[in-house]
Amino acid sequence: MEVAELKLLKSSDFKQIDFAYDHELQTASIIFDPIGRPCFNMELLEELEASQQLLKNNHLNPTHLLVMSNVKGVFSFGGDLRLFSRLVRSKDQLGLSRYMKLCIDVLMSTTYLYQLEKIAVVQGIAFGGGFEAALSCSTIIAERSAQFGFPERLFNLFPGMGAYSFLIRRVSPAMAKRIISCTERKYTAQQMYDMGIVDMVVEDGTGREAALNYVAERKRYENAYNAIREITDLYHKVDYDELYKIGEKWVKTALQLGDRDLRKMEIFAKGQDNYAN
After folding, report:
1. Considering its fold, how many domains does the chain have in total?
2. pTM here?
3. What DSSP string describes 226-276?
């Protein structure tokens, strides 16, 4: 099947994401292109929120949304660890709460925005909040070399922006707890597929093409697929208040971190510099 080319519609207001729209397939794409380390810094989160508003207000009328990354080898490392360390050291509860709320707002909008079919295309590493971002989508397509995991417990924290709530839409609570608690393990795309977390594994370099082919195929059976997605959302609904309460627990736990924990966090952030743009 011939795949329609994505036409880049980068807004001058966006510095850390690219926004694209395929008119033929009625498919929008939000592509992470962060400045510096490939994580969710505040500016990137604000642009993601703005791009979601763009989808609501510019009458493009998409039926599908692809979520991808422009960083080679990395979907996203997740939370901005340098920011976390600075806010914890200064005991800035309001700053941590603002970051937490913005993450949750973006994730919930991704999950329920316009009842679109949201497809995460994971090419490379999806750790922490990056894994959560993929889980917030209704479908996950992973390239074979992709890696998944939650490293937060290495620095005495936990993934607090929806990891558990989104995982139990796909696996049992016991399995979700195991995945969140396992700090040493990096899960492969195939392992995630075998668990039922990833929906499709494709060869490296073919993720975007596979996603567009998937969209084209779905349109032949759109009525049935939409009904299946709506049933899933009805019986496995993620509650905003639940996420916010977990997020508040994350803020409280973060503020209790000691110097040893923060130094580990800063070392982990330094290791991410190798992937910085």
Report:
1. 1
2. 0.91
3. HHHHHHHHHHTPPPHHHHHHHHHHHHHHHHT--HHHHHHHHHHHHHGGGG-
